[in-house]
């Protein structure tokens, strides 16, 4: 079966979710582009968007239309060429509207799993529940005569457990997009010794067409991305808890969030990132990873406590940030949650005091968005900044130096424990999947 | 028609700001003033200078594509909206693509010549930021022949002038041509920085030439032979001016030193269904300019300044040749040598032109007249250039489509 033939019938499970909708969008566009190739004339392309939520699927179609419109507007020059023979399509608007129709016309939304029984490929983006994934894979495989390939978006469940559990004989691999899939260029590709080469070749070709960067990760729970993020998050929480022995918890949390953002020149502080991903999702992923890590305990009571209090972060359906450790106004953190009183305390009330305790930032400091987009000058900027930081004798500098050392260590562990094949792979994941300005495995503060 | 059978004047010009990318007021995500706002502001800005609407006999409004940009036709009906005193007075809307503004002027001039009016209010307006550029390109393509649209570029007009630039590159050399186009761009921005209503007024780029050099034309991102700096702006703006007879000027109480006299006009139409006979030449502009100069009984060397239609930098370069300032192929050199800069031999587009001030398509022709009126009467503020009695003339060249509708007008201060 060729690449073009295999993509004629595809299903996405969990299509209305945050990750599923992005995967669906990218796949729908890829399938539509294939269908427009002259050699594929007469072939039907079907993409089943499966989700338990009918309301979610309605929202998905709305999202798809808006996104495909943006994509079409950006590639109108190419589309005019593709539709050259269509005499009825003259203006850009005609062409853009036709393309939107073409993409949406491939998508078949529904709540019934039976729709997947004709598919060649199943993308899975449901919740991180190993048993549920196995059950669905098994059901589909038992009823689908095509010996379908399963592409799971799991960010933590070992692939071989899914393979064995659903008895797929190597027809499953991890194809882990980063959030949001339509924008983030990273895909972690997780294969097992059992995965067929044909499937790996297809996955690479598909990623290339989607303009994604593939980083191979070995089949160890959490893979590279969450392998770093979960440990990095735990370090942040521990540091905040340590600091809170001498000060109110909200102040300690503020300081660690600031250190992990400003001092480490990252796009967001660690607590904001936890909120962004969702406290519940983070806790769940740690729970999935933990049994596979005999020498570590990826667990934190504060996270459990937050979930018990129903403070979970994550995003609203319109993409805005829900409150978690931090409270957000127009996407910006304004207050911090006090677990003892269950109240948010406004940052403005204690910010000056905390900033003074941390001490001044090095003079060469520039925010992440400046550093990260200073092409050609980025490395020199970071080097100058960290050199200056290393010489400083402030609490902020000390916390940042410790934080960076821990991040270094986590990166090294991912290589030594065989999760990542190289330090480069670890760094690429953090640079492209987490938008860090520099990789965790660095020499800046040595 | 060689000599105008009656004296015709213009005065009381008014420009709104040119709103679009570059202006700090512009935020594509926030609501913006509508077309009614611009018509009103420009119209009232002019009326205020002439003693009010009671002195107006007739209105003309030039606009290209409000029917698509704003879903609004029937623009003549907006003239009485400007002021109650215009209610039940004659009003006409004219359209000739990006030359609509100048057609509003010639229509008003003809009313004065026909003695059916002594004071005509001319307004030119376009509000284009109502849609994304990719759809705006469809609308603007209406200035070309629709039967050519299918095979045209997604950005139709940039595509047309990119082809002209390419032909010029092939004939005379790309680097040579671009040295002239670069200087045209630099002049446009530097002049716009002197005019508070200009879209590029707040442009703070240090080395404009270096920026231009960095942005090589890239067909994958835009069109083959132009970059975005070679292009005029997407603008929302309106301009107003009055066209009067001798009696009209008196009625409005405007002293002659505050008015310009229209010395000659020339209007040329080239068959829209034909491709240009030579891509490296603007033949309609050449004809119109020649005729206007002849009608005025002057030579191009008598011009103190000209407002020309630089919808693209290459059009600016080609216009210097069409006007006769440079021989074919020498226009790029002429511009690169600084001859069109504000201190050059013939200062062109002293408030930035279409690239620097902005290009509210159907309003541009009126804006050009307002700029010439300001310069010749000495009220151009920081953008003022020196005008002497020895060389007292100003000229406007307004072009619709790809050298299809062209209006050339020559002016002089009324008391000189």
Quick overview of this protein structure:
The complex is a heterodimer of chains A (446) and B (416). Chain A has 446 residues and is an alpha/beta fold.
Provide a descriptive summary of the structure in words.
The complex is a heterodimer of chains A (446) and B (416). With 446 residues, chain A is an alpha/beta fold. Chain A has 18 helices and eleven strands. Chain A folds into two domains: 3-217, 3-Layer(aba) Sandwich (Rossmann fold), CATH 3.40.50; 225-433, N-(1-d-carboxylethyl)-l-norvaline Dehydrogenase, domain 2 (Orthogonal Bundle), CATH 1.10.1040. In chain A, the strands form two sheets. Chain A has an eight-stranded mixed beta sheet, sandwiched between helices. In chain A, strands 9-10-11 form a three-stranded antiparallel beta sheet. In chain A, helix 6 (130-143) packs across helix 7. Chain B is an alpha/beta fold. Chain B has two domains: 9-132 and 234-259, 3-Layer(aba) Sandwich (Peroxisomal Thiolase, Chain A, domain 1); 145-233 and 263-413, 3-Layer(aba) Sandwich (Peroxisomal Thiolase, Chain A, domain 1), CATH 3.40.47.10. Chain B is built from 14 helices and nine strands. Chain B has helices spanning 35-47, 66-69, 79-82, 100-113, 133-140, 156-172, 174-192, 208-214, 246-251, 283-296, 313-322, 331-336, 353-356, 364-377, and strands at 9-15, 58-62, 91-94, 119-127, 236-244, 259-269, 303-307, 393-400, 405-413. A nine-stranded mixed beta sheet of chain B has the order 3-2-4-5-1-6-9-8-7, with helices on both faces. The model of chain B has no long low-confidence stretch (mean pLDDT 97). The interface between A and B is small, with 10 and 11 residues.
